[in-house]
Write a structure and sequence with these properties.
Strand content: 15-25%
Order of helices and strands: HHHHEEHEEEHHEEEEEE
Radius of gyration: 23 Å
Shape: elongated
Structural class: alpha+beta
Strand order of the largest sheet: 6-7-10-5-11-4-3-8-9
Number of domains: 2
Number of strands: 11
Length: 285
């Protein structure tokens, strides 16, 4: 069977994306999607060079590749998290192998899986595989669009923010225009006016306002943003202990960062915080 390098690269890129996206969902990881694409591309390039460099087919080399893909694609704050993500990656890979074998028997097409590389000679199978993977990728934005439509007419929610200094409850606006994310973790950002959470702000955060951002400790988050009439700006933020959102009689436990705004967010005091629409993707409790 003739194998074209560009199709070998593309087939493995798409297969890696399918595996990594499944793993991302299982891990509930929030790292920026560009890192997932970079991880998938690394695996695809490895598959292309493997026939040319037989040493790449050794188990230890593949193990190093898998570890590198996990470190690039997912948030690994410690060794335990890394090992769990690696185990999940291997599990999803075995599922993908099973799916490829199923496609082989169902379609009767030529499908090759050798030394970890994937290739199919069937344009029908390739087209179906690409469509499924890219639908999964676009599904993220489709879900966001549906959430934005669903929020129309139900724009206010109650949010409880907890830190080591206590907890406060604020009224929050469900704003589909808030697309702020924390760069390192990829977590969505909820913007809260400082006067509403002053009493629970961590000590290191209060000292940052007094000393200026140049002396900010690493726990303080710098959140850049752009808005109409202003080219760019930045909010100071922090990671809360816990955030709960009550919306339409449902309670959501949200993983997010808090951006602190000095000015009131509502001119008439209707709300004191602005939520990110992806916060409602978290587990309902």
């Amino acid at each position: 069977m003739e194998i074209y390098l560009e199709l070998l690269l593309l087939d493995n890129l798409v297969m890696n994306l399918a595996i990594l996206f499944l793993c991302r969902r299982l891990l509930s990881d929030h790292k920026h999607l560009c890192w997932l694409w970079l991880s998938a591309l690394l695996g695809a390039v490895y598959a292309v060079f493997m026939p040319l460099l037989p040493v790449l087919a050794y188990f230890i080399c593949k193990l190093i590749l898998a570890g590198s893909m996990v470190l690039i694609g997912f948030t690994c704050r410690n060794v335990k998290r890394f090992l769990f993500a690696l185990l999940c990656f291997f599990g999803c890979t075995f599922v993908a192998i099973g799916a490829a074998i199923g496609l082989y028997y169902l379609s009767g097409s030529t499908i090759m899986m050798e030394s970890g590389a994937f290739y199919t000679g069937s344009s029908l199978v390739r087209g179906a595989l690409y469509a499924l993977v890219f639908l999964a990728v676009l599904g993220k934005w489709l879900l966001e669009l549906l959430q934005k439509r669903h929020m129309n007419g139900h724009t206010l929610a109650q949010m409880e923010i907890s830190t080591g200094a206590g907890a406060v409850a604020v009224t929050a606006l469900m704003d589909s225009g808030n697309m702020l994310t924390e760069k390192k973790s990829g977590l969505p950002v909820a913007v809260v006016q400082r006067s509403s959470i002053q009493k629970i702000l961590p000590d290191y955060f209060k000292s940052t306002y007094e000393g200026g951002t140049l002396d900010a400790p690493p726990e303080v988050i710098i959140i850049p943003y752009r808005s109409l009439g202003k080219k760019q700006g930045a909010l100071l933020g922090f990671m809360p202990g816990q955030v709960k959102v009550v919306w339409e009689q449902k309670t959501f436990l949200c993983a997010c960062a808090i951006g602190v705004c000095e000015e009131p967010l509502s001119g008439n005091g209707d709300y004191e915080a602005i939520l990110h629409p992806l916060m409602l993707k978290e587990a309902e409790i």
